[in-house]
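Hypothesis: this fold can be encoded by more than one sequence.
Test: take the structure tokens below, design a sequence, compare later.
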């Protein structure tokens, strides 16, 4: 989301709708090969006229294509900033209402208690059974675990 906004800031408004569609094609690709093809199409399409936007996009290529190196169940959680933003919205609202009545210690305690309260309403992430595989450093390609021989062949 933030990278899309940064790239669009480097483009004229007349191109925003089309560019946004092209950027979403990268993010919503079904496989890493599709994502890389969409990335290359986007850089080729806008590279000649809007080099600043393409430079902004290209500097984070590895990070933007990293979703395909995670379990498929985790991708929808990683792509969304909503859990973090909704929790921080609660904290922001309550701390703004207290105005200047907080010391550093009471502010920290208030934020902690608000976060603990919000935690009760969180739903469990999908794919928690795959966390062990991530901890064991098992590689994933297009959301599925890759065995050692497949990984060497893909490289």
């Amino acid at each position: 989301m933030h990278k899309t906004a940064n790239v669009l800031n480097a483009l004229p408004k007349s191109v925003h709708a089309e560019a946004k569609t092209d950027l979403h094609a990268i993010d919503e690709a079904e496989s890493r090969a599709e994502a890389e093809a969409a990335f290359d199409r986007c850089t080729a399409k806008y590279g000649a006229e809007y080099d600043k936007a393409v430079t902004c996009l290209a500097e984070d290529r590895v990070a933007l294509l990293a979703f395909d190196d995670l379990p498929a169940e985790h991708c929808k959680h990683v792509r969304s900033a909503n859990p973090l933003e909704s929790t921080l919205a609660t904290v922001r609202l309550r701390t703004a209402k207290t105005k200047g009545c907080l010391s550093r210690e009471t502010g920290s305690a208030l934020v902690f208690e608000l976060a603990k309260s919000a935690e009760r309403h969180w739903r469990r992430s999908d794919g928690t059974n795959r966390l062990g595989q991530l901890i064991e450093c098992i590689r994933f390609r297009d959301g599925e675990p890759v065995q050692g021989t497949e990984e060497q062949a893909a490289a």
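The first helix runs from residue 2 to 9. The CA atoms of residues 56 and 72 lie 27 Å apart.
Hypothesis status: open.
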